[in-house]
Amino acid sequence: MTGTLYVVATPIGNLADMSARAVDTLKAVALVACEDTRTTRTLLTRHGIATRTVALHAHNERAATGKLIALLREGKDIALVSDAGTPALSDPGAALVGVAHSAGIRVSPVPGPSAAAAAFSVAGFPASGFFFAGFLPASGAARRKALAALDLPWPVVLYEAPHRIAGTLAELAQQLSPGRQVVICRELTKKFEEVARLPLGEAGAWLEAPHRRQGEFVLVLAPGEEKAGAGPDPEQVLSVLLESLAPSEAAKLAARITGAPKNLLYRKALDRAK
Question: pLDDT tens-digit profile of 61-88?
Fold first, then answer.
């Protein structure tokens, strides 16, 4: 019998948001694979969890995955967590989960906090779903393509770092429209949480307060107008999704969004990964 890989969501700010099931799971497993052992140890200590931790981050994911799969094959249960929120969602972990599936190892979610879902819930844009863009590329042609791909007929959720938030909002206003509504979520669930809904053209003035240049940001863009006779460019959508998803998942979702053939998009995703 192999072990089980539990994908455990943890608080995005307020440590009281930890679920009872997440606590029980982290106590019961043999090992907790985490993005930063120091950050996770603070959370574990808060909830009286003594389980051993091991680092699994962007720089060691390939090497760490092999060792963790070996332990799972020995029958040990392992929990995967990120620094905050749901693992493998703009965070490390997708590679481990993918290899576990290929190895026939059971993968089980322990759902909970997600910054994307939390921001969408307070945005107030009626829609049956949203497009999750994750973090945009930092600069260059890739960033320009990603920004152009965000003019979609449904809400768009994206993350941004504090040192790039002002520039991103200015670029969005230029690319889309100064009148397009955006919800800016800053420091969600933390002491200085702020949620503001306003036109993109007014976002820069809102950010001028010195304290608003700090913290974690999630943006939710209002849906754009449906464009007759044209949908989103499949390769642009694929490019954005590859920033936070594995090639197979990115291709699958891009195919659903654009109607393009999944196999074709998957080949393009593999070519980009070379």
Answer: 888 999 999 999 999 999 999 999 999 8
Strands (E), the chain: 4-8, 31-34, 53-55, 78-80, 106-110, 131-135, 156-160, 181-186, 194-199, 217-221
DSSP annotation of 183: E
> Using an 8 Å Cβ cutoff, are 118 and 146 in contact?
no
Tokens 């945005």 — which residue? 123
Q: Which helix (H) or strand (E) holds 61?
A: helix 61-73
Q: Which residue is associated with the tokens 């249960």? A: 77
* CATH level 3 topology of 116-226: 3.30.950
Contact 217, 184 (CB under 8 A): yes
Assess whether pLDDT exceeds 80 at residue 229.
no
The ranges assigned to domains in the chain are 4-113, 116-226
Fold observed for domain 4-113: Cobalt-precorrin-4 Transmethylase; domain 1 (3.40.1010)
Q: What is the pLDDT of residue 188?
A: 96
The answer to whether the CB of 223 falls within 8 A of the CB of 153 is yes
Neighbours of 187 (CB within 10 A): 19
Between the alpha carbon of residue 151 and those of residues 21, 133, 157, 172, 230, the distances in Å are 39, 12, 12, 9, 12
Distance of CA 153 to the CA centre of its chain: 21
pTM: 0.79
The gap from C-alpha 200 to its chain's centroid, in whole angstroms, comes to 22
pLDDT tens digit string along 98-139? 999 999 999 999 999 999 999 999 999 988 889 999 999 888
